[in-house]
Amino acid sequence: MGLPSVLVVDDDPLSTLMLQSILQKEGFVVMTAVNGRTGRLMAESEQPDLVIMDIQMPEEDGLVACMAMKSNARTANIPVIFISAVEDVTTKINGFNAGGLDYITKPFEVLEVVARVRLQIRLLHSYRSMVAANLEQLNNLGTSQKNILVQPEEYPEAAFSVFYLPAQTAGGDFYDVIHTGAGIYDYLVADVSGHNAGTALPAAALKALLRQNAAMLYSPLENLNLINLHLRPVLQEDQYATLIYARLNKARKSLTLLNAGHPSAIIVRAGQKAEVIEQSGDGLGLFDSVFFGVQDITVAPGDRVFLFSDGLIEQGCDGPISRRVGLKKLVHLINVNPSPTVGGTINAVRENLFPRRKKMDDDVVLLGFEVT
Asked: Do 313 and 172 reside in the same domain of the chain?
């Protein structure tokens, strides 16, 4: 591990010089930039341990720059501390919403700046060590993936049901439901490329990383950007993962839906017909910088959402079918089976699509949940 480095982004020369002097005396390597755009590009290329960012700057302000950093896989996990003469609560909240982890007001105290910088860098190094340790443990994983799949009775308030049928003893598809906060649940379905037991380890690694980051209160977008960086070491050559990720906030009646190269989700509004939520995005593990489809949707009690893997819509009881035909059939089956429960609809779909077939060519996952 090299010397800890800090990037100071501020258009005020005096403030920049003071911060640079303070931090260098404490042993930090310090880089500087005069506006948000230059700063975030430097953060991407130089990979500092931390960024101290002013808010009011020409060309690109700190809030915009920070949001751009958090949406970029190469800079998403670099902590940002805002430092500004603006003291109103709204600006501070905007800073935290943009992805900042701390906020220091000018004029600043020397000891306060040093203490906050050290704290954030220690937290970052602890997080990196934790990820490395988890990945090392996953390399020795010997348990069946089926043993780590959450069951509906474990989270009754999540109001979900699921049908899971792996093609092998340990499959590359998996699902998860994560209780991330009071009245907040994450639902996801993922698919690691390949149809053999070699997909079980990457699938378990992906599941562990998702749970780890969700527990640390990352947003779904931050979660996926971080995972994209850390997943590559456990993927085989030319291997990748697709994912559909839904975060339901019951109090706000909002659903955030992210797509990483996966089949689109289906929503059934209470008393209405099923419709596909069209999305696209890059798979995980393919590129350093990736694009994920993101939608924020307002939901109401009684609405249902279905997430599924491609194995559900690309194979039938008599063999392979096209994704377009399979998706159309799935929407139809959901519409003609308006069960009082999500589980009833899922069972109806399963019995219709796979009435005789027990040996599958690809893993199958169908997960549904209801807004309550």
From this structure: yes
- Please give the average per-residue pLDDT across 287-304, as a whole number: 92
Residues 6+ apart with CB under 8 A from 111: none
Domain count, the chain: 2
Residue 43 has which token pair?
């953060």
Task: Tell me whether residue 364 is exposed, middle or buried, using C-beta atoms within 10 angstroms of its C-beta: 0 to 12, 13 to 18, 19 or more.
Answer: buried
pLDDT, one tens digit per residue, over 325-348 is 999 999 999 999 989 999 999 999
Domain of residue 50, CATH code:
3.40.50.2300
Q: Is 90 helix (H, G, I), strand (E, B) or coil?
A: helix
Q: Which residues partner with 6 through β-bridges? A: 30, 50
Tokens of 206: 């992906």
Query: Which residue, among 186, 269, 249, 243, has the nearest Cα to 365 in the 3D structure?
Result: 243
Interatomic CA distance for residues 90 and 84, integer angstroms: 13
Q: Which residues pair with 293 in a beta bridge?
A: 259
Q: What is the pLDDT of residues 263-283, one digit of tens each?
A: 999 999 998 999 999 999 999
Largest CA distance in the chain: 75
* C-alpha 218, offset from chain centre: 8
Give the range of the structural domain holding residue 302, as residue numbers without chain letter: 143-370
pLDDT at residue 51, rounded to an integer: 96
CA distance between the termini of the chain = 48
